[in-house]
Write a structure and sequence with these properties.
14 helices; binds phosphoenolpyruvate; binds magnesium ion
Length: 323
Amino acid sequence: AQKRYAGLRDLPAASLCGETVQLYMNAGLMADLPSLQNSGAEGVGLFRTELQFLTRTHVPRRRELAQLYSHVLDSALGRPVMFRTLDIGSDKVLPYMKPQDEPNPAMGWRAIRVGLDKTGVLKMQLQALIRAAVGRPLYVMFPFVAEMSEFEDAYRILMESVAREQRLGHGMPTDLRVGAMIETPSMAYAPKRFFEMCDFISIGGNDLKQFFFAADRENERVRRRYDTLSAPYLTFLELILARCAEAEVPVSFCGEDAGRPIEAVTFAALGFRRLSMRPASIGPVKHLIRRVNLQALRAQIDDARDRGISNLRPVITDWLARQ
Ligand code: PEP
Ligand code: MG
């Protein structure tokens, strides 16, 4: 399949109406990095740092992590890499972490909640990132932020880490951009200041969708029951887009849906200009975006919603089939 789309690699994901969508890839291991070149991705929109913690038998040391992150940046050849701080708990349990007996781990002690309660590991990881990025830009994002104060606290810890590095006389990244992942519906209603504080926002659609519909992403029985292409969910995503636009903060959608061509083209029609997906999806998504007039698709979606249609999938697929 990669071969089939190879001809598209250096072409932009530009729609027939002239809108360009930036396609980024998701990664989590060094082995993923060669895909950056092969897929033609603009950068890594989501680097899941927990994978490197999961494949070890002990908490990695700061020096070891800094080296790893530095290799990641080297392999990215100047393209941006958005490092997401540890998202452990829920479906990602570290072998050397005391198992938590939680009835609902996905809604439990995970991600930034762990980072803010046990700041040692978060600080160590942030220092490793800062050291790895000396002399180049650094993008850091915090996962599973459910309240503005959590972002503020994580932001403060990051700034303290920067100050500490400066005090120690270490070099600095040339630029530091700080982002939050929106994975809970609460953040769509966060104060405007939250959006203004963020340099970028990334929607974690896998989690956001499970909490929007209250349907466990790991539970085969209910996982596919609710469709991404439903009017309520798309309307909700539009609200987040509007909040980001109001604060002029760039937003990307990362999560499995961004790599599904029909979903991806729908997100683009709603107004998303950045999507991050597994590398193998970049070709198929780009192929479809280049064949579609996003404004016309948008008009179809709006019209169907005005007519009170909730399940938009048949509307969208039928329209796409006629293009
Ligand atoms: C998501 O929730 O959509 C996401 C990108 O993060 P993860 O799948 O790692 O939870
Ligand atoms: Mg998530």
